[in-house]
């Protein structure tokens, strides 16, 4: 983690900070082309091979294990891991990044951000609004960014404490295991219904496409593929269940490490008033954190191991973030702004600390400025 001492920036410095980061984006987008298209197509092949291999091994374990008992567990374990890997890559390196429009330049219907549908129960249409628009536009702005605790957890002292938050250390493991379901209903704002603020008719109407997507996913993973094993369907069904659970927990860990580590901040709505480009970059910087780990970590996180770069440049093909991070870090250093990066165990340990600490009542920290961040002079 960077130990850079944060300093306030003058109006001229803020403008220069934003201009440097904008220029880096422009230079990078000018280079986007065949290399990026070849990369994403290669990842899609990996998704298919690992998915096919995982499902095939589950089938071999289920059917073959009935006749050769020692074959059951090894084949099923490897099958589950391959299927989970396929689902992780499809969601994080392909789905998430394609839906951001990173590969629209290819003019390939397979990678069209407006029509891509991914392998989770959440619809891509809802994700485009809740994530691409609300989260990326209003990152860590209280009352605007629904990803702050996902309406369930208290992870910052500025959030109002309620008695049920005492149970959030117990709620979190369940939430992680069912993370794709939480994402699926996030846009529905079901919590407003329980609070007496939501219209039942609207929620029922909005739920219809989500319900259809949930049904298709349940049918695919827990009926159709297991049915191929005939009377030996149970190991295949359980294998799909475990693979989805692994994917869910991994996604939860990566996303929470991106915004809820120790030094992350939330901001009041006032920061949005006359927010300059440089100030917008500062808000993204102080609301995002990176995970160290190299190429394997980058692939398995969909390059959200570079959450800072992703929030700066969500339309840049994500496999470029590693290289971009070198210049971004240098720019932040020149302007004495913190660049938060740490190992996965360290970052997730800080997330768990936040979840545990803020399960109990606490007062907000006194902000360094009315906006809780360096301001325009």
UniProtKB/TrEMBL annotation:
Keyword Nuclease belongs to the record: no
GO CC, alphabetical: membrane
Gene Ontology biological-process annotations: lipid metabolic process
InterPro entries, sorted: FA_desaturase_dom (IPR005804), Fatty_acid_desaturase (IPR012171)
Keywords per UniProt: Membrane, Transmembrane, Transmembrane helix
GO molecular function: oxidoreductase activity, acting on paired donors, with oxidation of a pair of donors resulting in the reduction of molecular oxygen to two molecules of water
Record field: transmembrane: 56-85, 166-185, 222-243
Stored CDD domains: Delta6-FADS-like (cd03506)
Domain Fatty acid desaturase: from-to ranges: 72-340
Domain of life: Bacteria
PANTHER family: ACYL-COA DELTA-9-DESATURASE, DESB, FATTY ACID DESATURASE 2
Official protein name in the record: Acyl-CoA desaturase
Organism name: Luteimonas yindakuii
């Amino acid at each position: 983690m960077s130990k850079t001492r944060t300093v306030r920036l003058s109006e001229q410095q803020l403008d220069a900070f934003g201009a440097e980061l904008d220029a880096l984006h422009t230079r990078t987008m000018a280079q986007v082309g065949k290399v990026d298209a070849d990369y994403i197509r290669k990842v899609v092949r990996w998704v298919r091979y690992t998915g096919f291999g995982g499902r095939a091994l589950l089938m071999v374990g289920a059917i073959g294990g009935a006749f050769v008992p020692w074959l059951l567990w090894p084949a099923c374990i490897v099958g589950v891991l391959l299927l989970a890997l396929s689902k992780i890559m499809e969601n994080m390196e392909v789905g998430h990044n394609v839906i951001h429009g990173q590969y629209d330049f290819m003019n390939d219907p397979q990678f069209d951000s407006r029509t891509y549908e991914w392998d989770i129960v959440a619809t891509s249409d809802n994700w485009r609004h809740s994530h691409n628009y609300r989260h990326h536009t209003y990152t860590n702005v209280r009352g605007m960014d629904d990803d702050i605790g996902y309406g369930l957890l208290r992870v910052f002292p500025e959030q109002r404490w309620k008695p049920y938050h005492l149970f959030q250390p117990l709620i979190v493991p369940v939430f992680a295991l069912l993370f794709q379901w939480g994402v699926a209903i996030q846009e529905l704002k079901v919590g407003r219904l329980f609070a007496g603020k939501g219209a039942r008719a609207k929620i029922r109407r909005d739920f219809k496409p989500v319900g259809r997507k949930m049904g298709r996913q349940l049918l695919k993973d827990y009926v159709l593929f297991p049915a191929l094993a005939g009377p030996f369907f149970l190991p295949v069904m359980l294998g799909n269940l475990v693979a989805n659970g692994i994917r869910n927990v991994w996604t939860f860990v990566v996303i929470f490490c991106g915004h809820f580590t120790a030094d992350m901040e939330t901001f009041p709505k006032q920061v949005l008033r006359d927010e300059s480009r440089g100030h917008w970059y500062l808000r993204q910087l102080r609301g995002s954190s990176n995970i160290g780990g190299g190429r394997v970590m980058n692939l398995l996180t969909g390059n959200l191991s570079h959450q800072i770069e992703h929030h700066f440049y969500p339309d840049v093909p994500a496999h470029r973030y590693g290289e971009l991070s070198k210049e971004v870090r240098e720019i932040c250093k020149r302007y004495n702004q913190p660049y938060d990066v740490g190992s996965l165990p360290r970052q997730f340990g800080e997330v768990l600390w936040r979840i545990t600490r803020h399960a109990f009542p606490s007062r907000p920290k006194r902000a360094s400025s009315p906006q809780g961040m360096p301001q325009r002079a």
